[in-house]
């Protein structure tokens, strides 16, 4: 069963990165909760997404210029901009204690470099479900060097090889903003989990679950909980967002993306232009990877080239 991960607590239902947000995520039956951490002037890890307090509190200034006492004196704003919680800027330690009490796993995002030691110290003293994430992949490598905590890389684009980025960072998970079917397949081959963000619609949730998402990061865990609790439907003609595509007779379709796309093999496809002039690779008439024995070979040899696969076409 895929995990439901409340984004910044439960952003749609409570002020972000607060203890109340963690409680809201628990009420929605989240499995885990994602939180952002920064360092205060006096060296305390506090929950805060932005580098300043201007947007999320009634105060002003950079987090790094304010002491914990200063931060505790502020009132936290909810999504509508209303001050709703005095003393609402919480420490990571407070969040950890509450998450443990509520039985929630943690995804802790390091918003700055240099937090590795403090984060490891705060999180590694108890047995809990926890992943530390960051856009700073070198920080994750350092975290792995000094602790046994799991690491997860965050990516907002779709790199050529996101799985290789995860392996270089010694990460056990990828938190992508954009995905394709190849990402799930290759990540799972390396036992790397994939948790897309930020998923706030039932249709998107259902699609990502069919592709094989291990969990969904969402602002509204109550809504996405309902989607995750439903049986996952196999992708086919009636519910595939990319239909019409090939749909050959007797094709067993979980999702029909070719893991080699775009292969740019001129015997299998060609570049075409849309009405707006965008150039893209089309292989809509290629049947190569849908031949059963070729598909079996490709599954066993994921690095196979089109040359190898074409050599199999005449055999069975």
Note the quaternary state here: single chain
Number of helical segments with 4 or more residues: 11
Return the CATH architecture of the largest domain.
Answer: Alpha-Beta Barrel
Distance between the termini: 36 Å
Molecular structure report:
The chain has 316 residues and is α/β, with parallel strands linked by helices. The protein folds into two domains: 3-228, TIM Barrel; 270-311, no CATH class. The chain is 29% helix and 18% strand. The protein is built from eleven helices and 13 strands. The strands form three sheets. Strands 1, 2, 3, 6, 7, 8, 9, 10 and 11 form a nine-stranded mixed sheet that branches. A two-stranded antiparallel sheet has the order 4-5. The chain has a two-stranded antiparallel ribbon with strand order 12-13. α1 (19-27) links the parallel β1 and β2. α1 packs parallel to α3 (92-102), α4 (116-123) packs across α5 and α8 (202-211) crosses α9. Mean pLDDT is 88; it is low at 246-252.
How does the SSE layout of this entry go?
Blueprint: E1 3-6, H1 19-27, E2 32-39, E3 45-47, H2 68-72, E4 75-77, E5 83-86, H3 92-102, E6 105-110, H4 116-123, E7 130-134, H5 137-146, E8 150-155, H6 162-168, E9 173-176, H7 181-189, E10 193-194, H8 202-211, E11 215-218, H9 221-228, E12 270-273, E13 279-282, H10 292-300, H11 306-311
Parallel strand pairs: 1-2, 1-11, 2-6, 6-7, 7-8, 8-9, 9-10
Antiparallel strand pairs: 2-3, 4-5, 12-13
